[in-house]
Amino acid sequence: NYIADLDPSYSPDGTRIAYLRESGYPTNYSPYSFDVVTMPASGGELTFVTQDGASESSPDWGTSPDVPSSPPEPVDTTAPTAAVGPLSAFSLGSTRQVTWQASDGGGSGLASFQVRHRRASWEGGFGAWTYPDSWQSVEADARSVSRATAVGRTDCFSVRAVDGAGNTGRWSDQRCGARPVDDRSLRASEKWSALAGQRYYGQTVRRTQARGATLVLSVREARQVALVATTCPTCGSVRVTLGGRSLGTVDLRSSTRKDRQVKVLPAFSSRSGKLVVRVLTSGRPVLVDGVGVLK
Fold this sequence. Notes:
Layout: E1 5-10, E2 16-24, E3 33-40, E4 47-48, E5 81-84, E6 95-103, E7 110-121, E8 138-139, E9 144-148, E10 153-163, E11 175-178, E12 181-182, E13 187-188, E14 193-196, E15 204-208, E16 214-222, E17 224-231, E18 237-242, E19 245-251, E20 258-264, E21 271-279, E22 286-294
Antiparallel strand pairs: 1-2, 2-3, 3-4, 5-6, 6-9, 7-8, 7-10, 10-11, 12-22, 13-16, 14-15, 15-22, 16-21, 17-20, 17-22, 18-19, 18-21
């Protein structure tokens, strides 16, 4: 009662086996005959795919019409998502590093990223988006790029991801950061003196002890302002206004002297006009190194 099992073949996903099982005995008039049978690779109940008395050939999961093929791999049609990471609103540095996060819900994995950039001066509008060649196919495991900054400019960045199936996500919301305007670009009233030194932002600073002394800068469509100044135990204070509306008061006192300090004022809705830094104290030193204007 011997029954032969021949030519086993695993399914592409490795979960089942197909093979030939002897279904009859030869006589003087007929040869052996075989049926195609499948079963779980881990063992279990048999399933006869054919049982028609014909002699079947070796089963092939990829091509044999007698053996059901495994389900096709799902097609990834879901676009990946990406977002620019946090950026400091104001930075004194000559370069800025831009990072991002991304995810792919479709299963094909992240393949590359594309980054774009645009810039505006404190007194002008934004230019068009630019697409640096080296930023249009950033490798999947590289999650940052660097950009040279410019004095008095706001730089904005946006990113999108491409997955392994070729789906391209939408451009992310932009994130922006500004490099402050140097004090030499501010219009000074009387009683300010100009000092120079490596300790100062841009190697220069404006100094006064006169109450009511002002520094003025015309700005367009600002959303946030910062004061770059020296703080010290005897330093005074200033009020900052834009378009005639107060943005806040800055106390420049500190326990020790500190240069290039960035004092960020609260954000506000877009506003244009004259930015005025006015000294509130008398006989106390006020050293203003620049102002940051975030668009």
